[in-house]
Amino acid sequence: MTSAGPDTVEAIEAAAATGEGAPAKRAYVRRMFSEIAPRYDLLNHLLSLSLDRWWRARALNALNWQRSPNGVFLDLCAGTLDVAIRLARQAGFGGLVVASDFAVPMLQIAQPKIQGRSVVAVGADALSLPLRTDGFDGAIVAFGARNLAELDAGLQEVFRVLRPGGRFVILEFQTPHNALVRAAYHVYFHRVVPFIGRVVSGHKTAYRYLPESVAHFPSEKELADRLTRTGFVNVRWESLTFGVCAIHVADKPAAIHDP
Ligand SMILES: C[S@@+](CC[C@H](N)C(=O)[O-])C[C@H]1O[C@@H](n2cnc3c(N)ncnc32)[C@H](O)[C@@H]1O
Question: Residue 49's pLDDT is what?
Fold first, then answer.
C-alpha cells in the first residue's frame, strides 16, 4: 500500500471492520471482491437461500423506472451485474443501464450474462464517478453502500449524477430489531455465514467482513437522515424479511423553474 493508512493485514482488517481508515477499507474491499469474484454469485444465492433475488426484484420495483422507460440508469457497485441485467430484461424497458464497480474482476466474470442487453459495465470508484452531472434518470445500489469507504461522499456522487427529479434506491442489510429474530440472525450471520463462506470461497476474511460491515452500517433511520442531509427529498424505507434488509428510496428535488 502506498497510502498513509495501516499497512499490516491485521490493521487493515481492523480498520475495514470498524469503518475507520477510509484508504485501508477501500483497498481491502476492492481486493477482496476481486478475489472472491468467481464464487460471489454462488455464495450469494446459497447463503441467502436465494432470497437475494427477491430482495433485488423488490428494490427494482421501488426504482419506478417505468417513469422513464427509455432512460439511462446507474447500477452503482454493480458487482456481477445481477441488478443491471434484471433491469435491462424488464418488459417495456428500452433504456440503458450503466453498471459501475471498482473491482473489475466482478464486472468481467459477469460479461457472459449481458447477452446483447443494454448494459454497459464501467470500472469506476463510486466516490468519484467519471459520469456527467444530472445525467441519470435513476440510480440503484444493492449491497454496495456498506462497502463504501466514505458513505456520505458516495451519496453526494449519486446526488450529483442524478437528473433533477431522479430517484435513488438503496438495498442493504440491516440488523433486525426484534430480539428473537436478532438472536437467530446473529448465530447465522456471525457463525454459519463466515464458516460456509470461507469453505466455499477459500477466502479467509471476506465472509467475516460481511457481518462486521453490516453491524457497523447506519440504522434505517440514520441512513434516511444522511440521505436527507445530502439533499434528497421524499426519503423513506421499508424493511424486508424480518428486518434483515431494508430498501431506502430518495428523490433528487425536481428543478425549480422561474415563473
Ligand atoms: C456485495 S457486492 C454487491 C454487488 C451487486 N450490487 C449485488 O447486488 O450483488 C459490493 C460491490 O461493491 C463494490 N464497491 C465497494 N466500494 C466501491 C467503490 N468505492 N466504488 C465502486 N465499487 C465499490 C465492490 O467491488 C463489490 O463488487
Answer: 85
